[in-house]
């Protein structure tokens, strides 16, 4: 089954109206492969700005949300608020949320369930740290993270699974295309065994971790790599090249 290639740009805590406005102009004017689904993860304070300026062919994602619709949760945003800004996606479980802000698997699972119940698409992130890879427990870690997400998903059509080896995020180290393919293939096998064959064949598993214009083509050629979640390079004009990696 040929899955629609998915490229997410995670702007993280970067940019201002001037620089993001320029990036958006570049994207709107760029020639992009129409067979690729593109979603830009904007800081929450710029969600409205990004959605109003970006061409309708591009999606927008929040970078996080909370597990309930409203209430006394200072500093948090809810799926309902995200939807109210015309935004249809959220990134959940990013390694920076897990390891810098201490979010647990359980909390990420609860957020996933609530976001999906409220009609958001979820880019759910999983991935091992360097000591876990060196210790030979990559599969154990990513399967455990995936299980908590899977336990909270009823409709997989709204979920994209992002494998991001933590040791390759922002470090300039990229997993080799073979390393990425190996984990993606094992994740698909896990989904087949633990969810269903139909889900395993239809869910997009994308790769993140220092994806650049230089590394994207070979990564994109791997059988089980269905797209990318791009960090730093999504703020640069080369993001267009990454979107067109399959073209």
TrEMBL record:
<dbReference type="InterPro" id="IPR013785">
    <property type="entry name" value="Aldolase_TIM"/>
</dbReference>
<dbReference type="GO" id="GO:0004807">
    <property type="term" value="F:triose-phosphate isomerase activity"/>
</dbReference>
<dbReference type="GO" id="GO:0006096">
    <property type="term" value="P:glycolytic process"/>
</dbReference>
<dbReference type="Pfam" id="PF00121">
    <property type="entry name" value="TIM"/>
</dbReference>
<comment type="function">
    <text>Triosephosphate isomerase is an extremely efficient metabolic enzyme that catalyzes the interconversion between dihydroxyacetone phosphate (DHAP) and D-glyceraldehyde-3-phosphate (G3P) in glycolysis and gluconeogenesis.</text>
</comment>
<protein>
    <recommendedName>
        <fullName>Triosephosphate isomerase</fullName>
        <ecNumber>5.3.1.1</ecNumber>
    </recommendedName>
</protein>
<dbReference type="GO" id="GO:0006094">
    <property type="term" value="P:gluconeogenesis"/>
</dbReference>
<comment type="pathway">
    <text>Carbohydrate degradation; glycolysis; D-glyceraldehyde 3-phosphate from glycerone phosphate: step 1/1.</text>
</comment>
<dbReference type="InterPro" id="IPR022896">
    <property type="entry name" value="TrioseP_Isoase_bac/euk"/>
</dbReference>
<dbReference type="InterPro" id="IPR020861">
    <property type="entry name" value="Triosephosphate_isomerase_AS"/>
</dbReference>
<comment type="subunit">
    <text>Homodimer.</text>
</comment>
<keyword id="KW-0324">Glycolysis</keyword>
<comment type="similarity">
    <text>Belongs to the triosephosphate isomerase family.</text>
</comment>
<keyword id="KW-0413">Isomerase</keyword>
<comment type="pathway">
    <text>Carbohydrate biosynthesis; gluconeogenesis.</text>
</comment>
<keyword id="KW-0312">Gluconeogenesis</keyword>
<dbReference type="GO" id="GO:0005829">
    <property type="term" value="C:cytosol"/>
</dbReference>
<keyword id="KW-0456">Lyase</keyword>
<dbReference type="GO" id="GO:0046166">
    <property type="term" value="P:glyceraldehyde-3-phosphate biosynthetic process"/>
</dbReference>
<comment type="function">
    <text>It is also responsible for the non-negligible production of methylglyoxal a reactive cytotoxic side-product that modifies and can alter proteins, DNA and lipids.</text>
</comment>
<dbReference type="GO" id="GO:0008929">
    <property type="term" value="F:methylglyoxal synthase activity"/>
</dbReference>
<dbReference type="InterPro" id="IPR035990">
    <property type="entry name" value="TIM_sf"/>
</dbReference>
<dbReference type="GO" id="GO:0019563">
    <property type="term" value="P:glycerol catabolic process"/>
</dbReference>
<dbReference type="InterPro" id="IPR000652">
    <property type="entry name" value="Triosephosphate_isomerase"/>
</dbReference>
């Amino acid at each position: 089954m040929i899955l629609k290639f998915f490229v997410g740009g995670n702007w993280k805590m970067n940019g201002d109206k001037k620089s993001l406005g320029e990036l958006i102009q570049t994207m709107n004017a760029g020639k992009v492969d129409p067979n690729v689904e593109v979603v830009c993860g904007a800081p929450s304070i710029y969600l409205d700005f990004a959605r109003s300026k970006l061409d309708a062919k591009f999606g927008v994602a929040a970078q996080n949300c909370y597990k309930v619709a409203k209430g006394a949760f200072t500093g948090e945003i809810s799926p309902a608020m995200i939807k109210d800004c015309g935004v249809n996606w959220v990134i959940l479980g990013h390694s920076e949320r897990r390891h810098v802000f201490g979010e647990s698997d359980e909390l990420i699972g609860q957020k996933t369930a609530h976001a999906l119940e409220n009609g958001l698409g979820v880019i759910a992130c999983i991935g091992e740290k360097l000591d876990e890879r060196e210790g030979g427990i990559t599969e154990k870690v990513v399967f455990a993270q995936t299980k908590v997400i899977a336990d909270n998903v009823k409709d997989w059509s709204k979920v994209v699974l992002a494998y991001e080896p933590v040791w390759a995020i922002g470090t300039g180290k990229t997993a080799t295309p073979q390393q990425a393919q190996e984990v993606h293939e094992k994740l698909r096998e896990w989904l087949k065994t633990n969810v269903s064959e139909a889900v395993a064949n239809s869910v997009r598993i994308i790769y993140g971790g220092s994806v650049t214009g230089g590394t994207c083509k070979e990564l994109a050629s791997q059988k089980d790599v269905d797209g990318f979640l791009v960090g730093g390079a999504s703020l640069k004009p080369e993001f267009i090249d990454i979107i067109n990696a399959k073209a």
